[in-house]
Amino acid sequence: MSNNPHAYRATARKVAAAIFAVLCIGASSVASAALFEDDEARRAILELRQRVEAQRVAAERQVQEQRQDTDQLRRSLLELQTQIESLRGEIARLTGQNEQVLRQLADLQRQQKDISQSVDDRLRKVEPGKVSVDGHEFIADPNESRDFEAALAIFRKGDFPAAQSAFTDFIKRYPQSGFRPTALFWLGNAQYANRDYRGAIGNFRALLTAAPDHPRAPEAVLSIANCQIELKDNAAARRTLDELVKTYPQSEAAGAAKERLARLR
Hints:
This protein is mostly helical. The protein has helices at residues 5-126, 142-156, 160-173, 180-193, 197-210, 217-230, 234-247, 252-264; strands spanning 129-133, 136-140.
């Protein structure tokens, strides 16, 4: 190193200048780096704010859409509820109409039944119908049945003169009636009770001629024999009783005839 003071100071100044330059360069680099980092940070912050804003906007949009969907759903539910109430009202109305129709139908059916019953009753009063008397079935006019039952009711009361007249009138009024054989039988019994024995025999024989297989025929033969006994014609009574036993051997009247034959002999 030179011992020249001027040279030393110059060198020192150069060294100092160099050091200063280096420091300046370093400070500049640090400043540049700091500036660079600030820009990056600002950009990052800006981007973050933008993302946050975008998310906020998206969230608000989603919330708005959900509100709209919720409002639409509420309106739909309200409309559905209104429709349900309307349907309930319609169902109630139809149910009421249906009940009314059912009541009207029931009333009509009841009226129809009453009318049918009334018609049937009237027809039974005027139209011939099937009847059964003494096991014999036939078709008879309602008036015919009524008059026969009336005459029989008189006989059963024990009013034999009136019964004789009633059965006589009946046979004249209905000469072809299915009741005729039975009417002849009761007429003969009424005459027997009135001691008209010959008249009774005539009607009992008329019954046997008209219907020899009639259920009352064996009783009619026995009644003829009873009339003959009352007329003191025992011989005729025996012949009649023998005829009864031969013609109707299985009848109850035949059993009674055998007992009377035993007494007459």
